[in-house]
Design a protein that fits this description.
It is built from 14 helices and 14 strands. The chain is α/β, with parallel strands linked by helices and about 375 residues long. α5 packs across α10. This is Pyridoxal phosphate-dependent aminotransferase.
Length: about 375
């Protein structure tokens, strides 16, 4: 097992996530209690929960859960779905299964750190930065220029964490076609799909390509990270078989209660996602007002999808000091730019991540406003 660097985000959260009074940088939408989720259950889901036995579950995942996941795609069957203990396990094992020393991978930045550091522990990796001066646009010409004969994988995350960027559909389809034409695997982290604003969701990579992998999870758009249920959809079943064998060395199987609750949530997905989109919309309006009030201190691009954004801080003290002083003095938690620094590209140093998917955002912004005044 290669030695991986310190996971900056998780280390930062270990210090502050459960002690700060106002979690204003949360990457997930508002969660719910088990009782609230069970109120959304159909008769079958309620019976499954009440009669559940606590034995081992199937490595691939509960068959009915895989069917519910497949129903969120257009061209994916239940047999094309492999469940994992969260998205992190799926991401890690996919990089291990798809990449070897001597290969080359391409990763967009900024990103969730393991999307960069796990492939870097295996092979040569090139970063392609989203353009902050152009609403975090993905430049396909730049990506095309860094491809090599030994490029095996392109890893993307849309809607993007931490910027909230979503490419237009034409660019997205061109990226999928480019990877297929070159025989490159597209690894598409789609964990915020369903929280787009004023635009339809992009077609999922696994629907557009038989070779592509689509990663998703109950944690982000659904707001149910405590379930620890994620999945990879891929129509190349030989790839899923390799991932299943890798999973035997990790979680072996998911927790049976979590899979039943995930099934209930997926069957109620329209209601859950509609609630969470409404929260995001309301909170974006609040942050818009906050940024307008402090126009000399902040600039931001509201997220096109997902529930996080990456504003600029223009204060003379710098974003690192601002975030540190804010949480220490008021309990309002933000993630500074250093958490999202990259070994592959030059990343902005004046940014911070803000979350817009939780209730009580107004309370946190009011505390922050009083601190600034």
């Amino acid at each position: 097992m290669p030695t991986l660097p310190d996971f900056r985000l998780e280390t930062f959260f270990s210090r502050w996530e459960f002690t700060a009074r106002h979690h204003l940088t949360a990457s997930d939408a508002q969660t719910m209690t088990v009782a609230e989720l069970l109120e959304l259950a159909d008769d079958d889901g309620r019976e499954r929960w009440q009669s559940l036995t606590l034995g081992y579950a199937q490595t691939y995942g509960l068959p009915e859960l895989r069917e519910a996941i497949a129903a969120t795609y257009r061209r994916v069957d239940a047999a094309d779905v492999l469940c994992f203990a969260g998205a992190q396990e799926g991401l890690h094992l996919a990089m291990q299964a798809l990449l070897e020393p001597g290969d080359h991978a391409v990763v967009i930045t900024p990103n969730y750190q393991s999307a960069e550091t796990v492939p870097l522990s295996i092979c040569d990796v090139t970063g392609v930065a989203l353009r902050p001066d152009d609403r975090w646009r993905l430049d396909l010409d730049e990506l095309r220029a860094v491809l090599r004969p030994n490029t095996r994988l392109v890893s993307v995350n849309f809607p993007n964490n931490p910027t909230g960027a979503v490419p237009d559909e034409a660019t997205w389809r061109e990226l999928v076609s480019l990877c297929d034409e070159r025989g490159i695997r597209l690894f598409s982290d789609e964990v915020y799909r369903g929280l787009e604003r004023d635009r339809p969701s992009l077609p999922q990579a696994a629907d557009l390509s038989e070779r592509a992998l689509s990663l998703n999870v109950m944690s982000k758009a659904y707001g149910l990270p405590g379930l620890r249920v994620g999945w990879i959809a891929c129509r190349d079943r030989a790839v899923l078989d390799r991932l299943e064998r890798a999973k035997h060395y990790w979680s072996i199987c998911n927790a049976a209660p979590s899979e039943v609750l995930a099934l209930i949530a997926l069957r109620a997905r329209d209601a859950i996602l509609a609630r969470n989109r409404a929260l995001v919309t309301d909170n974006i309006a609040l942050v818009d007002d906050f940024v307008a009030h402090f126009a000399g201190l902040f600039e931001w691009t509201p997220p096109e999808g997902g529930c996080v954004a990456f504003p600029r801080y223009l204060g003379e003290d710098g974003v690192e000091a601002m975030c540190a002083n804010l949480v220490e003095q008021t309990g309002v938690l933000l993630l500074p730019a250093s958490v999202f620094s990259s070994e592959l590209t030059t990343t902005p140093t004046d940014r911070f991540r803000i979350g817009v998917g939780r209730r009580d955002t107004d309370l946190a912004l009011n505390v922050w406003t009083r601190w600034l005044c």
